From TrEMBL:
GO terms for biological process: phosphorelay signal transduction system. The chain holds residues 30 to 340 of 367 of the full protein. GO terms for molecular function: diguanylate cyclase activity. It catalyses: 2 GTP = 3',3'-c-di-GMP + 2 diphosphate. Residues 184-311 form the GGDEF domain. Its EC number is 2.7.7.65. This is diguanylate cyclase. Residues 27-145 form the Response regulatory domain. It is an enzyme of class 2 (transferase).
Length: 311
């Protein structure tokens, strides 16, 4: 068979790679039955600027993970009292379903293939033989950080709107469903820019994009709950807010948008208005039904003359 051709590319050495990767401080949970081992590995980690929480009991570690503590890395030995390390690997995988990626390293003093395969099959990302050499541990943590970084980037790409940085439609509906599951009072504001087609026609698509970005910025107080759900349509989730209070918030937002003028590079300024619909969810609503209520109110705001809020 043909020999692969060497790809011409930037020449860099491994040492160079190590230098360019920023050492990022990670929050690490370290689990091992032996306090001596905890101290030894814990010291290596803290010396490198990481934050470490140690457990000699698997059950306590599991409770800590379930407690919602935000961690970046779980390092667990196989042989732990309470909950075995293998199970911890699994549980960590199940818990870490949010926006914050969790890297899992299994550790064992044995190096046999069975152990290694079992660890990786149980959800571990990597395997370390104890005690690790400091250099090896450092390198494996850099690999962990690279993967966590890539996972964070994937989450961002999957949940954020590229133009405005707000949540995208998909992430918004997931949050709305989540909120409904909790059964608390909540309202939604649906916002649609008025005569936006005219903005594009007059100032070009780029001018339109500048306006979309400015409208998104006017919602910065709602970071993490504001979304771009359509081309020039936005939505905001308001947990714990009744419909009439949401109406007041929507009105303030409407004024803020009407007061915002964006200046293009050529010096021309654009200002827009928006129409808003507000709705509290009903007891048995799913997210679609809830948004439908807000959409009906928004439609009433449009037909009522635009630049207004209807609940
Ligand atoms: P109305 O007051 O009834 O909402 O009128 P409108 O012109 O805002 O509504 P319409 O739905 O007819 O037009 C929306 C326009 O938004 C059409 C589309 O070209 C534009 N649009 C959608 N996505 C984008 C985008 O990403 N950038 C820009 N610049 N325009 C977009
Ligand atoms: Mg629209
Ligand atoms: Mg519109
Ligand atoms: Mg209503």
């Amino acid at each position: 068979c043909a020999r692969p051709r060497r790809m011409p590319g930037p020449a860099f050495s491994v040492a160079h790679l190590v230098i360019v990767q920023r050492v990022v401080s990670m929050r690490i949970v370290l689990v091992d039955a032996s306090r001596v081992t905890l101290k030894l590995i814990g010291r290596m980690l803290t010396d490198n600027g990481h934050e470490v929480v140690c457990f000699s009991d698997g059950l306590e570690a599991l409770a800590y993970l379930h407690g919602g503590s935000e961690i970046d890395l779980l390092m667990t030995s196989f042989e732990t009292p309470g909950v075995p390390g293998i199970q911890l690997c699994w549980e960590a995988r199940l818990i870490a379903n949010g926006d914050r990626p969790l890297y899992v390293i299994a550790m064992s003093s044995s190096n046999d293939a069975d152990h290694l395969a079992e660890a990786l099959d149980s959800g571990a990302d990597d395997f370390i033989r104890k005690p690790p050499a400091p250099m090896e541990l450092d390198a494996r943590l850099r690999a962990a950080e690279r993967l966590n970084q890539a996972r964070r980037e994937l989450v961002r790409l999957a949940t954020r709107d590229g133009l405005t940085g707000l949540l995208n439609r998909r992430a918004f509906f997931i949050q709305a469903e989540d909120l409904l599951r909790h059964g608390i009072v909540a309202s939604v504001i649906l916002l649609d820019i008025d005569h936006f087609k005219q903005v594009n026609d007059t100032y070009g698509h780029d001018g339109g994009d500048v306006v979309l970005t400015a409208v998104a910025r006017a919602m910065s107080a709602y970071a993490g709950r504001a979304a771009r759900v359509g081309g020039e349509e936005f939505a905001i989730l308001l947990p714990g807010v009744t419909e009439s209070d949401a109406y007041e918030e929507a009105e303030r937002l409407r004024w803020r948008i009407a007061d915002t003028a964006v200046t293009l590079r050529d010096g021309r300024t654009i200002s827009v208005t928006a129409s808003l619909g507000v709705a509290e969810h009903a007891t048995d609503d799913n997210a679609d039904e809830w948004m439908k209520r807000a959409d009906i109110a928004l439609y009433a705001a449009k037909t009522g003359g635009r630049n207004r809020t209807v609940m």
